[in-house]
Structure formats: C-alpha cells, structure tokens
Design a protein that fits this description.
homodimer, 369 residues, Ribosomal Protein S8, Chain: A, domain 1, Wheat Germ Agglutinin (Isolectin 2), domain 1, two-stranded antiparallel sheet, oxidoreductase (chains A, B)
Amino acid sequence: MFYQIRRNMSAAPKLVAVAESRRFMIDCFKAVKVPQAYAEDQADLLVGADYRGHFSHGMNRLEMYINDLAINATDGAATPKILKETPSTAWVDGQNGLGAVVGNFCMDLAIKKAKTVGVGWVCAKGSNHYGMAGWYPMRAMKQGLVGVSMTNTSPLMAPTRAKEAALGTNPLAVGANATNGDRFLLDMATTAVAVGKIEIQRRKGAKLPDGWAQDPDGNNTNDAELGFSTGCLYPLGGSELTSGYKGYGLGAMVDVFSGVMSGANYSTKVRKWTHAGADTAADLGQVFIAVDPNCFAPGFEERMTDFNGRLRNTTPTDPSNPVLLAGDKESHGMNSVDEAGGIQYLENQIKTCCMLAEKLNIKPLQFID
Amino acid sequence: MFYQIRRNMSAAPKLVAVAESRRFMIDCFKAVKVPQAYAEDQADLLVGADYRGHFSHGMNRLEMYINDLAINATDGAATPKILKETPSTAWVDGQNGLGAVVGNFCMDLAIKKAKTVGVGWVCAKGSNHYGMAGWYPMRAMKQGLVGVSMTNTSPLMAPTRAKEAALGTNPLAVGANATNGDRFLLDMATTAVAVGKIEIQRRKGAKLPDGWAQDPDGNNTNDAELGFSTGCLYPLGGSELTSGYKGYGLGAMVDVFSGVMSGANYSTKVRKWTHAGADTAADLGQVFIAVDPNCFAPGFEERMTDFNGRLRNTTPTDPSNPVLLAGDKESHGMNSVDEAGGIQYLENQIKTCCMLAEKLNIKPLQFID
C-alpha cells in the first residue's frame, strides 16, 4: 500500500542480501509463533516482492503482518481446509491463516487439478492479505502451466458516479511462460493507481494528475493531501468520460470471482484498511486458477515468445523509452538487485526492522559490508 | 465498430419489431447459402445486440458479414470441430465458420464440461468476428453458470510507449446471475474507447478527450479526424501517467487466452480491420469459460443480489445520475425497445437493408405501422 521513495543518501547505501532479508522475516514470523514452513512461505513472498522492485508489497508489509499475528487477528498456525471438491474445482477455507499459506495451498491444489483434467479453479474464503498477486501465477508457471489469481481487498475505489468507496484495489494477475525463461506476467490493481502513488505525490508536494483520486464530493481532485485523506481512488480508466466504468467493472469482476463466489467478505463487507493491524479477521476471498496450455494448440511457449517479441518490438514513440511487456519491470528489478548484490531498503524500513528485532528479541537485520 | 447516431428526425420514427429484424437477417444469411440453423444463430446474436442498445454490434455489422460470406472469406456452412479434449477443456477449430456458430458451439461445450467437472474451458482457432462478447456468458447464465468469453480482433491499440497498433480492442465479458433475473454482466473492450466513439466526435466536429487516441507520432491527439485516420487507440487507462499499461496488459492477456493459446492469429498477425469484408480468412482466436458456482459456497445468487445492491446503492456524486452496475445499460436498452414496441434503426441502416434486400432478392425489412 505505502510506496517507499528512494532518497539520495549521502552515505553509501546499506545493502541487504536476499537470503538475509528472508532470514530476518522468517525469524520475525517465528517469534509470533508461526511454524517454520509457514514462516518460510510468507517470507519468500515478501522478499520475492522486494527482489522484483515491488517494495510496497515486500518487507514494507512485515510490520502489519506481525501486528495482525500478535493480536491473533490472523492465525499464523492455521492450515487451510478443503470444504468441497470436484475434478477441476475446490472450495477452501483459509481458516484465517497467513495469505501466502492460503495462496500457496490453493494454487498447488489448482496445479494438481490442471495436471489431471486441464483446469484447476480454487476459491478461498477466510484468507488474509496475500501480497503480490503475481506470486501465485508464478507458482503455476514453474509447472509449465498458465496461472491466474485475484483477491478482493478493503474498500478504496469509488464506483463510477459514486462518492464513496465500495470496492478495493482488487488486483488480478496472469502469467504464461514463453521459451528460454521469458514470460508474460501481468500483475495489476484495477484502480487507476495504488494509494502509494498518491502518497508519493503528497510527500513531494506535487499535484495529482486527473483520473487518480476523488475529493469527498466525488469530483476529481488534483490535491494530493485531499486525495489521500478521502481514500476514494478512481477505477482504471479514471472518470466516466475516459471509460472508468470499465475499471469499475473489472474491480467488481475480481470481487465476484474472489469474494462472492467463495463466501468470504466482499465489497463494503470487507474491513477498512489499516497499516497498524486490525482487531477482526479479514475474511478475504481469493481465486487461483491453473490451466494446462498443452490441452490446446501445441507449441504454446514458442508462440508466446513470438507474441512477446511483436509487442516489445513495436515502434516506440520515444526510441529512448522502449516498449515493455507486462512483467519486464519486475525482471529489470531482479537484475538490479543481482548487479548490486543485495536489496537496498529505505532508511525508514531499516529503522522498523531494528525496532522489530528488539521487540521480538531476534537477531537484527545484517548488512553487506 | 461504427457507432450510429440517433438524429432527431422530423418524421415519426420507423420501428422494426425484434422478430422482424431477426427474420430479415436470417433471410439475408440464407441468401448467401448459410444453413437455417446457423443463420438463426448469427441473427439472434445481432438482433440481441440491437435489442440491448449495442447498435454498433447489431444489424450494423450485417453487411460486413454478408460481404465476407459472399466472397467465401467466411464459410457460412462450416461446422466447428473438436481437435482435442480433456474433462474440463476442449480445443476447437472453428473451420472459418460464422462467429456466432463457433461461439455458441464452444460455449455449449464449456457448459457441458462445467456441469460435469465444475469448469469448462474451450479455446477456438479458425473463428470469425463473434459479435457482442457478452452474448456467450449469457448462454452460460441461462444454465445457472458463470460465463466468460474473450476474443482477439484486428490491431487498433498501441502498446504503451508505442506509436503503432499491435493489439485489437480485445474485449472480455463476464456474467453471473443474481436472484430474480438480476445479474452482473461486464462486456468491455480493453481499449479506452471503441473506434465508434471517435467517429461520433468526428461527425460532430468535436474534440477528443485526452487518453482516447494517438496521432501518428504516438502522442495524444484531441483531433478526431487525425485520431480516426491514425487508428491507434489508447488502451484502457490512457497514457502511461494514468496507467494505460494496465489496459495494454489486459488486451495482451485477452490475446494470450484467445489467440496464442488456441493457435489462431494473434497481435499483428491478425488481418487489418475492414468494414467492407476481407479477402482472407480472419483466423481469430476466442476462449469460452463456464464455471459452476455451486462448486463453491452455497447461496451464490443471493450474495450476488446483495453485492449488486451494495454497488448500485453507493452514494451518487450527482443524485440525478444513479450508480450503475455492469449490464444495467443493456437492461435499460431492452426496456426501451419493449416500451417503444420495436427497434428504431437509423435512416442509413434502413437504406443499407433496402439495398441488401434488392441485391439478395429477399423480402424487404418491414416496419411497424
């Protein structure tokens, strides 16, 4: 949710090895009684987001998860349970477990079904914030499958023509392999922008572009402070004139597939967002789909490579600004971390880690010398 | 594609009964050797679009289909063929048949599979323009299922940062029943707007809003004439600043699921759009998905009713402009036709019908007295 701004620091940046970031987060989770395997699931997801440059969905969220676990708003030891099954579907109760634990469980089930009958479609209720939506399709892609995941979230999007929020940022993610490690990996919120982008403008004292956020009367606002405090984001597409009702429709679609279908909370039934941790179970709904492309035309990955190339090689408007494919930014993020030899966290993030280490009595986060 | 403007006509409007519009279109198709059942499939789709107020996708397209059939660019007698099957999937060759024939065949197959194993996922290659994307989910909804369909189309959308088109308007449609005939029915192109909306501005001599269309250099244009002639629509979301890359990602996702997965044409391999009919087979790709909501939490339709109400009842910005749900505009369109007692076509459309009746030697379109 809350984006981090990388400031120019006078001192040399403190880098954290990917393995050390993971170790630290596992230790944090274990300190609030999360079993080893589940702590690893959750830490892999968070460090995976940082590695890909999605800092908002990485260690940035650690404190929130720890808070939720500490007050038992999330049950870190809970194991998801299958409530109903058919050859291609399953209905799962996440039992208020950690988002990554529920998500991995459901996607693994979907993968198993896809390998047997071609498609696996698994809906979970009783889940929690599941992090980067693209994490779960990647799990299916490792098995040569096409993966999809969607989740509902706390209300932050105003339906077109409305002045109050009734849907979340409700992301969807879709991933498909091409050859030689290339792939298509879409991971997007169905709002025009994430709250974090508004926060960045606010910190900069800059105006918001049209189509990002509404004021309390339901009109477009360019005032970042007002946009942030109102908490009514425009759906993808912005105003009605620029087809914001399509983004609103997509956000609703995500909620139908994740919240309504699973019997979880949905729309305004979902609790309000809080960075500090909530005192009630979130009962979020999610859906995980795996499809075996070999059930259709042979040569899928070869065609994906050609498809990706056609998009990336479209003539750019500005030759210094190449055309990207969904997922390319994340690949660049990973390359940057690999080149630097570690993840560069913000000073504020590092302070939070120091505080957490002390509070939870674990080994502090170590830096690369 | 081409929107129709309802002008104020001095004479009383000429109304056409829904059944008569259907009769006329069936006769047209039969005149170019389409078998009765397939002529009905295609006419039902077109009159269904007109009935719902989607005039661009209704009888407006008749001439294009007839042209394609007359020169055998589409094979009106072709029967789709299953190439490969699993319990939850099928790969179909549309054999260059009419879009509605291929679409109905595939969705019926998906429905059958969903009823057996929970999900049916059917991909077709060798298809043609399949009309209103929402038509196929409606078929699944009649069976108590949730339906999805997507199709690729001729290149008209420029990827973010590009100055040439590499994806079509690539629509997706999703439908789910609520109780008492209410439902959620999303049917949207993944471009910001359809070409027809640009044509309307052009006819009016009005400017285009930002985020609709590009000029030949890849920049935003407000010049409707230039936007129309360039044929590079912005994806949903508009420019990069307003997250147009999400709409671009969605358009690509539709092509992955419809074109790439089915082994049909995709991206720039799809033939250029022509209203007059083309001289090569389109080989479009499509996907049809049916899901049985009873495989998940019981009471799906009751929750959909509550969900729909929560969205429609959000406080409106302008109380005279109520908040709508995806599909509400189409319901209003049907009510208008029912109240008027028939469909009011444009004068130009009626002229085209006269011309077609003469050319094909069939009974002209009749009006309500």
